[in-house]
């Protein structure tokens, strides 16, 4: 019998409202292990770990680092982990963990778009499906399981503010589906050949969004910023005044990664002194850049990470 730990971090899945038709809700101290059907205990030994009780909009770098540490300790005595998490930053947390965890055991992240008191709440089924996915023989690595779909940590993004069908993998597609606990894989989640493990440092980086007519004074960044993700136009194109300003920053040692304002597509634009983000969105580009900078400041080495991670 497999041992599965459910690490609870808060989020909508752990929230309640005063009325099932009330859109306002708050995170509660609900024990999510208790909402699983009784029959699941015949298939797996389930335990709960209460890590935090936050809205995921408040997740920060320390949250990620501490969660990774919790997962590392918990996975030693378990076969798989399910993490319940708010959906606002779920994709970023999943990608971060996929980069730093030195394990291929299943790490399933799930949540809910509707709180547990809501009419047609989706959290209970999402949690049940995630536990079934964690038990599945083909499961490995970090995945997101939500709305009966399985997504890889690298490609998944959130595209809707309230709809339960809020998550997609725009470049490579979902890797499987789960229907009331029945798991079907189309593809396997990606495992990075080299991970940025034992990373206890998250180098300071920033994201800047390009828009028509912007003043390049916005690029007068502080000296402790070691990297910059710039959200350019489609295929990571940049206005000339912005490009010229970024060239100066690059010469002064700031690592520049140029992403795009589109939700999908491989970036084919090339720059001599900048890195482009491949298929990563800006949020995930910043995570990879910060972690890579904790290992090296060599632009060519960091560029390799963006080609492989």
Summed up:
The chain is built from six helices and 16 strands.
Describe this structure in words.
The protein is of the alpha/beta class. It contains 6 helices and 16 strands. The strands form 4 sheets. The protein has an 8-stranded mixed β-sheet with strand order 4-1-5-6-7-8-11-12, with helices on both faces. Strands 13-14-15-16 form a 4-stranded parallel β-sheet, with helices on both faces. The longest helix is centred in the first third of the chain and has 15 residues. It is globular, with a radius of gyration of 20 Å. The protein starts with a strand and ends with a helix.
List the helices and strands and how they pair.
Layout: E1 2-10, E2 15-16, E3 26-27, E4 44-54, H1 61-75, E5 80-84, H2 90-100, E6 107-110, H3 123-135, E7 142-146, E8 149-152, E9 157-158, E10 167-168, E11 176-179, E12 182-185, E13 205-209, E14 227-232, H4 240-251, E15 255-260, E16 275-276, H5 282-293, H6 299-308
Parallel strand pairs: 1-4, 1-5, 5-6, 6-7, 13-14, 14-15, 15-16
Antiparallel strand pairs: 2-3, 7-8, 8-11, 9-10, 11-12
Helix pairs in contact: 2-5
- N→C terminal distance: 34 Å
Q: What's the mean pLDDT score?
A: 91
Strand order of the largest sheet: 4-1-5-6-7-8-11-12
The rounded Rg comes to 20 Å
Number of helices: 6
Helix content: 10-25%
Low-confidence stretches: none
Secondary structure tally: strands = 16
Largest sheet: 8 strands, mixed
Please describe the structure with a list of short key phrases separated by commas or semicolons.
8-stranded mixed beta sheet; 309 residues; alpha/beta; 4-stranded parallel beta sheet
């Amino acid at each position: 019998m497999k041992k599965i730990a459910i690490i609870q971090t808060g989020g909508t899945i752990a929230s309640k409202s005063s009325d099932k038709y009330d859109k306002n809700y708050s995170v509660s101290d609900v024990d999510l292990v208790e909402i699983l059907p009784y029959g699941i205990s015949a298939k797996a030994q389930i335990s709960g770990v209460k890590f935090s009780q936050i809205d995921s909009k408040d997740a920060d770098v320390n949250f990620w680092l501490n969660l990774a540490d919790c997962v590392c300790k918990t996975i030693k005595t378990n076969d798989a982990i399910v993490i319940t998490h708010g959906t606002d930053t779920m994709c970023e947390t999943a990608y971060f963990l996929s980069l730093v965890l030195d394990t291929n055991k299943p790490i399933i992240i799930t949540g809910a778009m509707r709180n547990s008191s809501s009419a047609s709440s989706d959290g209970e089924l999402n949690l049940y499906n995630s536990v079934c996915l964690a038990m599945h023989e083909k499961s490995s690595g970090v995945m997101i399981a939500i709305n009966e779909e399985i997504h890889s940590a690298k490609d998944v993004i959130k595209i809707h503010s309230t709809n339960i069908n809020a998550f997609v993998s725009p470049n490579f597609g979902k890797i499987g589906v789960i229907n009331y606990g029945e798991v079907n894989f189309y593809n396997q989640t990606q495992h990075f050949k080299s991970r940025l493990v034992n990373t206890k440092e998250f180098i300071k980086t920033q994201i800047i969004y390009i828009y028509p007519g912007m003043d390049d004074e916005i690029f007068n960044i502080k000296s402790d910023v070691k990297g910059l993700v710039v959200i350019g136009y489609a295929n990571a194109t940049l206005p000339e005044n912005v490009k010229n300003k970024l060239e100066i920053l690059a010469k002064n040692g700031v690592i520049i990664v140029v992403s795009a304002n589109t939700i999908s597509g491989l970036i084919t634009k090339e720059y001599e002194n900048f890195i482009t983000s491949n298929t990563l969105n800006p949020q995930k580009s910043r995570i990879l850049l910060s972690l890579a900078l904790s290992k090296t400041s060599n632009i060519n080495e960091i560029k390799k990470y963006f080609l492989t991670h």
